[in-house]
Design goal:
By secondary structure, this protein is of the alpha+beta class. Helices cover 28% and strands 35% of the residues. The protein contains four helices and four strands; from the N terminus they run αααββββα. A hairpin with a 4-residue loop joins strand 1 and strand 2.
């Protein structure tokens, strides 16, 4: 196997980093189509099922148990294992409305994702992603009890996202 050129390595690192960032954006917006498109087509889903449709069902079930999520991607260490395989560890801080969209409970989590990546058709994708919890704790002040910020008039209070996102509205319109 021929080693990757330096520019190919840099491009691989950036494309893989974008996977982690797009995962956070799609998950927070409940864009399940976009989220599942980040995975290989024959991804191993829960309960022995395979494929993006099975994975979509897993995400749908899991995300109905939480309301608003806000994932902040941080440290991302990537190890290239050839031209088409890599692994990585991603640190993430999540602020999560625990218990569904009507819950008043808001928590913060420190998360590590242990990832396997594969390049298929010239595109880097998740082969697998393991969510490992470092800790979870109640958020000091529940942001759901704040009055509307009406930004930019006020800097504190409830904002308009994710409620104004079309993908978010579609997700919750399907019901439980």
């Amino acid at each position: 196997m021929e080693p990757m050129r330096p520019t190919e390595r840099l491009l691989a690192f950036e494309e893989i980093r974008q996977l982690a960032h797009r995962y956070a954006v799609c998950l927070d917006a409940r864009d399940l189509d976009g989220l599942c498109a980040l995975y290989i087509a024959d991804v191993q889903a829960a309960r022995g099922a395979r494929g993006r449709e099975a994975l979509r069902g897993d995400f749908d079930r899991a995300l109905r148990r939480v309301g608003i999520t806000f994932l902040q991607v941080g440290t991302h260490a990537i190890d290239l294992r050839g031209a088409d395989r890599a692994s990585g560890v991603v640190y993430c801080r999540g602020e999560i409305q625990d218990g569904g969209p009507d819950s008043r409970r808001f928590i913060v989590q420190a998360i590590q994702y242990h990832d396997e990546y594969e390049r298929r058709g010239g595109r880097w994708l998740f082969r697998s992603r393991r969510h490992l919890l470092v800790y979870g704790a109640e958020l000091g002040e529940n942001p759901l009890t704040l009055p509307p910020a009406n930004w930019p008039q006020r800097q504190t209070g409830m904002g308009s996202v994710p409620g104004e996102l079309e993908s978010w509205r579609r997700f919750w319109a399907r019901g439980l």
